[in-house]
Amino acid sequence: MMRLACLVAILGVGGVVHADGLKAGAFAMDVTPTRFPISVNGNMADVQAKGANDPLHARCLVLDDGKTKLAIVVVDSCMLPRELVEDAKAQANKLTGIPADHVLISATHTHSAPTVTGVFQSEPDVDYVKYLPTKIAEGIKTAHDRRVAARVGFGRVADEAQVFNRRWKREHVLIPADPFGNATDKVQMNPGNEAKGLIEPAGPVDPDVSLLSVRTTDGKPLCLLANYSLHYVGGNPPVSADYFGAFADRVKQLVAPDTKDFVGIMSNGTSGDVNNINFGAPAVKYGPGERIKIVADHVAKKVAEVYPKIEHNSDVALAVAVKNLELAVRKPTEKDLERALKILVENKDKKVLSDRAAIYARESVLLATYPNKVPVKIQAMRIGDIGIVAIPCEVFTEIGLEIKKTSPLKNTFTIELANGYNGYLPTPAQHALGGYETWRARSSYLEVEASVKITAAVKELLAAVSR
Ligand SMILES: [Zn+2]
Predict the structure, then answer these.
(1) What is the pLDDT of residues 46-88, one digit of tens each?
(2) What is the CA(308)–ligand 1 centre distance, in A?
(3) pLDDT number for residue 279
(4) Of residues 260, 252, 257, the one with CA closest to residue 297
């Protein structure tokens, strides 16, 4: 679209209206719950938060090239179900006219935000499930109302110090049996620092921080959307936006200290198997919240190094494409269910399940009620030579690296946990290695070939938007 517009402009061909320059608006909507205690998910057992350690936000960016409008929203939440996201998009559409398919809404994956998706022993907070989409839509509207003439640019910087693959190959006899009673796992997640028999991490990391920078045409910083493939950090008492919120604050201090309305955003890249702990080295002790601050500061300083070098351009075309896939669910067999029910009977007096076999037995029973196939929405956005891919899963890093490498757009990154929640996305080879992320549960249930089908859809969508 951009190439055609430029070509038309160069040739002086009449009849085609050139987009009247880019407009952008950004806003960070506070989405901190107002009622406590509230359920917080992200652990095998539920956590009840008694207050907010730091505020939660839905950080919104709206872009408008005169012909196409799009919105990107990053929410301080662990995972957002498709129904909630669709609700927010429908409400935002009424308020702004932006088509639902042109809105990308993702969760940061903070593990200290209110439960809006049922996982393990946390159940959605009904009031917050109603509250959140309305606030997201209001946030998009405010960003939309704030549109001013703008320019966008892309930057990239590596921060190798904060990302480690958390799945380790280990001497087989030292790997515990999986929760289904099988001793078939060849890798172990979070095996412990310098644990005996560690061989090597089972996958790569992606150290790149991708940056979509938005400035007003007179050079004022308006928004900086960062993308880094780090699961979360942890260590703050709930409710907390984890390092995602701390990064947004720190990057503002560093790159736009005098701009009141500047919005910093950290989106989650492809970090299904990558966290902040180097299990190959001794454990490091941190005080409460200390690690979050250290990581946020380190990444923000790296970003601030390259930020002044980003070149901004207002002659960019926007495009969005969406594909709905139907993927099979890895449902428990009759035999699996029989075993699960037996374990649950043995544990029937326990209010909170602590035994992994029992927790996964409960998951098997719940997963048995799922349909055989589920819809999975894949989205690609183009902002000039920048490609943004959205996948509703906890995507393994190697998948994100392949998307970056094969994209027809020069600068591409993936935002995971976007537009819904369909659990972990390992590759078939990683499924064969086993480990936590592959264990059948509501947190990991797509067919083994899911990543192959999703990556193919991503390539199709990137080709479509880059035409
Ligand atoms: Zn996770």
Answers:
(1) 999 999 999 999 999 999 999 999 999 999 999 999 999 999 9
(2) 33
(3) 97
(4) 252
Token pair, residue 120, equals 């393990």
Q: Evaluate whether 104 touches 386 at the Cβ level (below 8 Å).
A: no
Q: How far apart are CA 447 and CA 454, in angstroms?
A: 11
How far away, in angstroms, is 207 Cα from ligand 1 center? 18
pLDDT at residue 77 in the model: 98
Measure 257 CA to ligand 1 centroid, in angstroms: 32
Per-residue model confidence (pLDDT) at position 128: 98
Please give the biggest Cα pair distance in the chain: 78
- pLDDT digit string (tens) for 98-128? 999 999 999 999 999 999 999 999 999 999 9
CA of 37 to the centre of ligand 1 (A): 23
Where helices occur in 284-427 by DSSP H, the ranges are 290-306, 334-346, 356-367, 397-406
Sign of dihedral through CA atoms 210, 412, 458, 405? negative
The H or E element that residue 133 is part of is helix 126-145
Tell me which residue has tokens 């928004």.
Answer: 223
Beta-bridge partner residues of 149: 23
State the distance from the centre of ligand 1 to the C-alpha of 113, rounded, in angstroms.
Answer: 13
**Helices vs. strands in the chain: H and E counts, helices first:** 10, 21
Q: How far away, in angstroms, is 109 Cα from ligand 1 center?
A: 7
Nearest Cα to 401, choosing from 270, 311, 310?
Answer: 270
* Helix axis angle, 126-145 to 82-96, nearest 10°: 40
CA of 218 to the centre of ligand 1 (A): 40
Distance between Cα 273 and ligand 1 center (Å): 8
How far away, in angstroms, is 231 Cα from ligand 1 center?
6
Averaged pLDDT of the chain: 95
Q: What is the pLDDT of residue 2?
A: 43
Q: How far is the CA of 258 from the centre of ligand 1 (A)?
A: 35
User: What's the gap in Å between 133 CA and the centre of ligand 1?
Assistant: 22
pLDDT tens-digit readout, 292-338: 999 999 999 999 999 999 999 999 999 999 999 999 999 999 999 99
Ligand 1 centroid, distance to 260 Cα (angstroms): 33
